[in-house]
From TrEMBL:
A single GO BP: cobalamin biosynthetic process
GO terms assigned for molecular function: cobalt ion transmembrane transporter activity
Listed transmembrane segments: 28-49, 61-78, 98-119, 126-145, 157-184, 196-222
Native source species: Umezakia ovalisporum FSS-62
Keywords for this protein: Cell membrane, Cobalamin biosynthesis, Cobalt, Cobalt transport, Ion transport, Membrane, Transmembrane, Transmembrane helix, Transport
Pfam families: CbiM (PF01891)
Pathway assigned to this chain's UniProt record: Cofactor biosynthesis; adenosylcobalamin biosynthesis
Chief localization: membrane
Its job: Part of the energy-coupling factor (ECF) transporter complex CbiMNOQ involved in cobalt import.
The protein, known as: Cobalt transport protein CbiM
Intracellular or extracellular location(s): Cell inner membrane; Cell membrane
Oligomeric form and interacting partners: Forms an energy-coupling factor (ECF) transporter complex composed of an ATP-binding protein (A component, CbiO), a transmembrane protein (T component, CbiQ) and 2 possible substrate-capture proteins (S components, CbiM and CbiN) of unknown stoichimetry.
Family: Belongs to the CbiM family.
Gene Ontology CC entries for this record: ATP-binding cassette (ABC) transporter complex
Length: 246
């Protein structure tokens, strides 16, 4: 887990609010708007989690692991050229394992605890942050994973792309949210979006690649130590029983 140690080392000096949109930063109208957009996903996600845990209670530990993975990665703040910081998201793994709706709940809980315990993000901006990191990112990861496995048959490449591109999409959506709230005096939304996107991209592209590689390492660990759970989720095939006579 060398990537985690690397993130912890260089993230220690970053500002407390990280790259989540900080408390009070969005105008009230936009903060309310993103809350309204995010709530239906959260409600559907609760239903999805209920179905998963009722059908297979033995998956609860793996659910907790997916949430912890997102919590740890998204709490590691990497200094950015903006004077703020960027961070991994960790949502791609949970989206592949349990689907984007379930990950929307886990991601929302992650962001809530970070806002309350780490001053990372905020409560008024929770709707915006959850939509970008816990909803848009996981949906992208889920679709990218299934499309890549269908086209290439290479599961680990699909895992890498799902995690990396979900990370990048999260910051693309954050750039959209900030550009909508703060359009440039000259050029409006597009000029503002280009500015935020270009600045974030300098830090986020290598960070997304690192997150993709780390997620593949974790996937390898899961295949070795939790094969029964992955079989239940139909993510790996059950090993055939040997019929050899003794």
């Amino acid at each position: 887990m060398g990537f985690v140690s690397f993130f912890m080392l260089i993230g220690a000096s970053a500002p407390a609010y990280g790259m989540h949109i900080m408390e009070g930063y969005l105008p009230a109208s936009w903060a309310i708007f993103w809350w309204v957009v995010a709530l239906p996903f959260f409600t559907l996600g609760l239903r999805s989690l209920t179905r998963i845990t009722k059908a297979n209670p033995e998956l609860k530990l793996l659910l907790a692991l997916a949430g912890a993975f997102a919590f740890v990665l998204s709490a590691l703040k990497i200094p950015s050229v903006t004077g703020s910081s960027s961070h991994p998201t960790g949502t791609g793994l949970g989206a592949v394992l349990f689907g984007p709706l379930a990950m929307s709940v886990l991601g929302t809980l992650v962001l809530l605890f970070q806002a309350l315990l780490l001053a990372h993000g905020g409560l008024t901006t929770l709707g915006a942050n959850t939509f970008s990191m816990a909803m848009a990112g996981p949906f992208a990861a889920y679709w990218i994973y299934h499309l890549t496995t269908r086209l290439t048959g290479k599961q680990k490449i699909a895992i890498f792309l799902a995690a990396a591109l979900a990370n990048l999409l999260t910051y693309t959506i954050t750039s959209v949210q900030l550009a909508l709230a703060f359009p440039a005096p000259v050029g409006g939304f597009m000029a503002s979006f280009a500015k935020f996107g270009a600045i974030f991209g300098i830090t986020q592209v290598p960070l997304a690649i690192s997150e993709g590689l780390l997620t593949v390492l974790v996937w390898n660990w899961l295949q070795s130590y939790t094969p029964q759970e992955l079989e239940l989720l139909q993510l790996i095939k059950k090993e055939p029983q040997s019929n050899e006579s003794v």
